[in-house]
Design brief:
The complex is a heterodimer of chains A (108) and B (475).
Chain A: H1 2-20, H2 28-38, H3 42-52, H4 58-89, H5 95-99, H6 101-104
Helix pairs in contact in A: 2-4, 3-4
Chain B: H1 2-7, H2 10-29, H3 34-56, H4 64-84, H5 90-115, H6 124-151, H7 165-185, H8 191-209, H9 217-239, H10 242-265, H11 270-275, H12 299-307, E1 311-316, H13 318-322, H14 326-338, E2 342-347, H15 357-364, E3 372-374, H16 375-378, E4 387-391, H17 400-403, E5 422-427, E6 447-451, H18 454-470
Parallel strand pairs in B: 1-2, 1-4, 2-3, 4-5, 5-6
The chains are: A mainly alpha (108), B alpha/beta (475).
Chain lengths: 108, 475
Amino acid sequence: MLVTNLAILVLAGFVGFAVISKVPATLHTPLMSGTNAIHGIVIVGGMLLLVTSEAHGALSKSLLVVAVAFGTINVVGGFLVTDRMLEMFKAKPAPAPASNPAPKDTPA
Amino acid sequence: MIVASALTDTNTRELLAIASFALFIYGLSGMTSPKTAVRGNRLAAVGMAIAIVATLLRPSIGNIWLALLGVALGTAIAIPAARTVKMTQMPQMVALFNGVGGGAVALIAYVEFRSTGGFHTVATNVAVFSAFAAIIGSISFWGSLVAFAKLQELLPGRPLTIGRMQTLLNATLAALAVAGAAAIVAGSHSEPLFVAMLAAAGILGVLTVTPIGGADMPVVISILNALTGLSAAATGLALNNTSLIVAGMIVGASGTFLTRAMAAAMNRSILSIIAGGFGGSGQSAAAGGSGGSVRATSPADVAIQLAYATQVVIVPGYGLAASQAQYAMREMTKLLEANGVQVKYAIHPVAGRMPGHMNVLLAEADVPYEQLVEMNDINPEFPRTDVAVLIGANDVANPDARTNHQSPLFGMPILDVDQARSIIVLKRSMRPGYAGVDNPLFTNPRTSMLFGDAKQSLAAVTAELKLLVATPTPA
């Protein structure tokens, strides 16, 4: 199990490098906030501990609720800001021609 | 009955886990082009939803309401924050999101330690991964909070350092954290020891980020991102959860890649950046008025130069974002484009406060991404450029970095602005840049300086341009 998991770890590292090295510098900020959201997957770890055992004391339970809340902030916030940023990079065919006639009527 | 047991089957969960990380990887490969990036990000979000649902597909789930409470709390905090954050504040927002991720990792490791009554009951490798996750998670949480505070200007952005003792103190803290981890792995079930280990790592995180100055922030944020990713992967190894391992490691790889790219863009080693203290440390040794005088100009002159140019290259720096001048700039460049001037934007990799930050700021101001040109692609174009306009940029276009061996910037890849036919520098005053070094570009005979607040200067130039382009079209 350990060896299999380590193999997965190493392969994931190479896949990560291969995919990310192709991302253009223009998109490095959304890339970072997007991968940031992905490591929010630790939320799964918090939930796993919370739902698989009833045995936790009050302190452990509270800590896990905080951990799940932290993970959720990481995930939800990360994907949302990434989406906001990427929407701005979308090619805008409509405004481009519209911006041409606009300055013509500006002199007044 | 059969359906229910099939849904809660371990194999089903494993298959869903594979689907989730496949979506992460496929989604991230969508980021290679702005056209597919929005969809890629949403696919990755779907992958996350699948991973979460798969976790809850179990025959019996205790504390489900507590888990949902955590999700509800997090969502209630994250949505308004993500919706309202300004693009200039994106670096601190990302630092904060990154930090809470690291905090979650540290808390999970702590609860694991508590619930097993110390790690003597689990396999050694699980204990090692958990202790690693706890330490790195804690460093990342506290380090990210400091980075957030510096970027949000709650703490001074300049390097804060206690001098030579700093490295010794950091090394001691690291040694303490590792010693605590070793004792815990060896079987200690002392809870105070675990908390002390978390605390030592946390203080180390604070002390490591505090001395690092504003312009080195892209590197800091990349490192913290990589650390949180690695700590998540370690949690995955400890919990035997494949999606965590894959997702965490991909983030670790991405953060490492960006860290290296940023350090290379400043020609500094990652270690020397972490050691900190660069900038503002009286490093103005190269001063002494390298000779030559500075030529000031007026908005009207600038407008004339720009209006009769064929190609104009804008060089934005952090000063542009600091004075919120990107919209004023865009208004000016729209006017130029409408009059047939070719406008491009030269983006230095460390122009903002996180990797790619400047591109986001310009995209927000409606600059088409095709016009954002990376350093290596724009440099050959400067000799063909009629006017280069520096807005709030300084060190990234300092020719000393190419030629002056004495300069602290020597060796840093720069934008070859000095090769343009004419150079206009928008600058608040003659104060040196972040690195505190002279910039001979300002005394170049082809350079003229337009002093003042960038936003007001750009508005003034735009007003002059409107007058200019209004007159020759009487039809």
